[in-house]
Structures are given as C-alpha cells and as structure tokens.
Design goal:
alpha+beta, 2 domains, three-stranded antiparallel β-sheet, 5 helices, 7 strands, transmembrane helix
Length: about 240
C-alpha cells in the first residue's frame, strides 16, 4: 500500500512539474506575441521635439551671436563688463537647454520591436531574443537617440528625480505613457502587478488535479483499511 501511494505521489509531482513547464512556455510565447505587436507613439513627442529645437537654437544664438553683437556694437566697453555679459548669456542659454533636457530627455517618442541581428544560430541553445527599440530626442534637439534593450532582462525600476522617467533600460532612464501600452508590455517595463489568465488557468488545473489525487489517495487508504479489517475478521471466525 505504501509503495502504491509513493508511486502515485511521484506521478502527481511529475505531472505538476510538467504542467509548470508547459505553462511557462505558453506564457513566454504569449509575451513574445505581445512584444511583436508593440507600436508605441507618444502623444507629446512632436511638441517636445519643437521645444528642444527652439531651445538649442536659442542657446546657439545666445552663446555665439549675442556676444559678437555686443562686442561689435559696444566695443568700447571694458573687458570685465564684456566678460560678465557673455557669462550671463551663456549661463542663461545653456542652463535652460540643460534643464529642458533633464525634464524631457527620457521621454520616449516612439517604440517598436526589433529582432536580434545575430542570424548564425546553431542548435536550440542559441535564441534570438525579442528586443525593443526606443527613440528619444537628444540634447541637441535635431538628432534622435536610439536605445535597444531586452524588456525581459534589461529593464529595472527607475529611482531618481526626473519627472518624466518611469523605468530604466540598460541603466538609461526612459518614460512611456502606461495607458498607451498593453497589459503584458506594461508589466514588463513598469513591473505592474497584472494578472495573467494563462498562469491562473494553469494554477487552477494543477490545484484541481492535486485535489483529485488527494481524494483518490484517501479513497485508496480507506479501501485498503476496510479490506484489511475484513480479512482479519475472516481469520478470527
């Protein structure tokens, strides 16, 4: 009887472990499908791009053109006053540009999926992970910064003072609007507690199977005990 129960327990443990593996593979496939369909576009991307272009243009004019005009129009000013005016103009122009980049530098303009360029995969141990490409505006305003990362391994929560940053990709702060992402991508990037229907179904099936195994074990124990008692009664009479 004990050997039979141990055999049933081993079978149940095997079934539960295989179910977990299958559920994990199914969840990974569902996540990959969601990542392939990512097509994120920010609602304020165009406005922020224009602000940065205007800011860098004003910075260039203040640093290069304004001191030259002051020197040409007021060449008789003392050198100390010219240096003071140039310093104030430079600090004001660069300070506003740096502050604008600090606020909106992590703002993602668009994000889309890309595949790894490594095509020489031989065997099942080498896999091409699904990557995401996020585009942000550089500090110079007229160029974009491209950030490619693996959302499953390269993403960490953001901790800092940037107002527009809610996750880090390869230690680079980025910001996306959560309402513009699907639940799976939002969970990977922002680590929100979003329930997965597939995992819940797997857990329910494993728990129901475990309950049925327990009921069957108790039934076998009761049947074995009753048959043993009946045999002892027959031997007694």
């Amino acid at each position: 009887m004990q050997q039979r129960l141990s055999l049933q327990n081993q079978q149940s443990q095997r079934w539960i472990s295989s179910s977990k593996v299958l559920c994990g593979e199914k969840k990974s496939e569902d996540t990959d499908d969601y990542l392939l369909s990512v097509d994120y576009t920010s609602p304020l991307g165009e406005l922020i791009s224009r602000l940065k272009m205007v800011s860098i243009t004003g910075c260039f004019l203040s640093v290069c053109v304004l001191p030259a005009l002051v020197f040409l129009k007021n060449g008789d000013l003392p050198s100390a006053r010219q240096v003071t005016l140039g310093t104030f103009a430079t600090i004001g122009a660069t300070g506003s540009t740096v502050a604008l980049h600090f606020v909106f530098g992590a703002y993602v303009l668009e994000m889309k999926p890309v595949t790894n360029s490594n095509d020489d995969t031989n065997g099942d141990d080498q896999q091409n992970p699904l990557l995401l490409e996020a585009t942000t505006r550089s500090i110079f305003g007229f160029w974009n910064d491209i950030h490619v990362f693996d959302p499953k391994n390269d993403v960490t929560p953001y901790v800092g003072m940037r107002p527009f940053a809610n996750f880090c990709a390869n230690e680079i702060p980025l910001y996306v609007h959560p309402e513009r992402l699907d639940s799976t991508t939002r969970q990977l990037l922002l680590h929100n507690a979003v329930g997965s229907s597939s995992s819940e179904k797997c857990d329910d099936s494993m728990s129901s199977h475990g309950d049925s195994i327990d009921i069957k074990d108790y039934r076998d124990i009761n049947e074995g005990a009753s048959s043993k008692r009946k045999k002892e009664d027959d031997e007694l009479f």
